[in-house]
């Protein structure tokens, strides 16, 4: 939903953001002037060829990385000039991340993996509640090796949302999964978005997945080339790839 349609100001916004990676004499222009906004409660799909800058943008949005130039705002607060400690604080309080690989601690159960986050958050859910949100109430005491890939990814979603972040950033969350398993993961993301209103940005290589989003942002060569609004979101179960 656009600002006009949603009636809400953006929760995250970038203005003319660029990112240049310099390796020796070579400069890679990963982002070439990005004006992007993420609105409360929406799901945005980021689509684009490999190397188009999707992960770079997501990392900058979440405060994992900094732009070379341009500005970034969280609501009315400018993030651009925060020092490392302040940026880490922003990330801890407001952003959940889900990556392609789940990064669970193998020696801890699902419940304990989520508890790692809830122990240090300000107003967290109980791990059991977070795992219920992603449909894993029956797997609380399973270790990662006792869970399927889709279940492990859902534990990582539970871990990301347990601190009740306003923003959830997902980099290819179904990239390592087959279609059927991927659908269960997307279902969990949509359920979380519906129940908690978490603004969600989702990188995917898969054009079919764009249909589960409210908006689709296309990237090419470090630029946003097109933004589409979906009239209605399609349930993940209706998408296959
Ligand atoms: N740490 C880095 N150092 C140098 N170049 C980098 C670095 N990270 C990314 N790049 C380059 O920046 C460009 C954008 O990369 P990015 O990972 O954002 O693209 P992407 O669209 O997410 O790609 P993919 O879909 O393959 O993950 C690429 O050309 C990449 O090689």
Automatic annotation (TrEMBL):
InterPro entries: AAA+_ATPase, ABC_transporter-like_ATP-bd, ABC_transporter-like_CS, ABC_transpr_LolD-like, MacB-like_ATP-bd, P-loop_NTPase. GO terms for cellular component: membrane protein complex; plasma membrane. This is Putative ABC transport system ATP-binding protein. It comes from Jannaschia seohaensis. SMART domains: AAA (SM00382). PROSITE patterns: ABC_TRANSPORTER_1 (PS00211), ABC_TRANSPORTER_2 (PS50893). Keywords: ATP-binding, Cell inner membrane, Cell membrane, Membrane, Nucleotide-binding, Transport. One of its GO terms (molecular function) is transmembrane transporter activity. Pfam families: ABC_tran. Residues 12-239 form the ABC transporter domain. The keyword Repeat does not apply. Belongs to the ABC transporter superfamily. Macrolide exporter (TC 3.A.1.122) family.
């Amino acid at each position: 939903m656009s600002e006009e349609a949603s009636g809400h100001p953006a929760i995250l916004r970038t203005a003319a953001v660029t990112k240049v990676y310099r390796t020796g004499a070579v400069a890679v222009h990963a982002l070439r002037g990005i004006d992007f906004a993420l609105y409360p409660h929406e799901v945005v799909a980021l689509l684009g060829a490999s190397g188009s800058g999707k992960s770079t943008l997501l990392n900058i949005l979440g405060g994992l990385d900094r732009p070379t130039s341009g500005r970034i705002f969280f609501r009315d607060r400018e993030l651009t000039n925060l020092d490392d400690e302040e940026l880490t604080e922003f990330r801890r309080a407001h952003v959940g991340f889900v990556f392609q690989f789940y990064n669970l601690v193998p020696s801890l159960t699902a419940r304990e993996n989520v508890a790692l986050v809830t122990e240090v958050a300000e107003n967290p859910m109980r791990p059991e509640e977070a795992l219920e949100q992603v449909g894993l109430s029956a797997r609380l005491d399973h270790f990662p090796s006792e869970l399927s890939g889709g279940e492990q990814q859902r534990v990582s979603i539970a871990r990301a949302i347990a601190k009740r972040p306003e923003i959830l950033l997902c980099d290819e969350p179904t990239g390592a999964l087959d279609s059927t398993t991927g659908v269960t993961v997307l279902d969990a993301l949509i359920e979380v978005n519906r129940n908690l209103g978490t603004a969600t940005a989702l990188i995917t290589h898969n054009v079919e997945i764009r249909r589960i989003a409210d908006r689709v942002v296309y990237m090419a060569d470090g630029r946003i080339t097109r933004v589409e609004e979906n009239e209605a979101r399609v349930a993940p179960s209706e998408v296959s790839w």
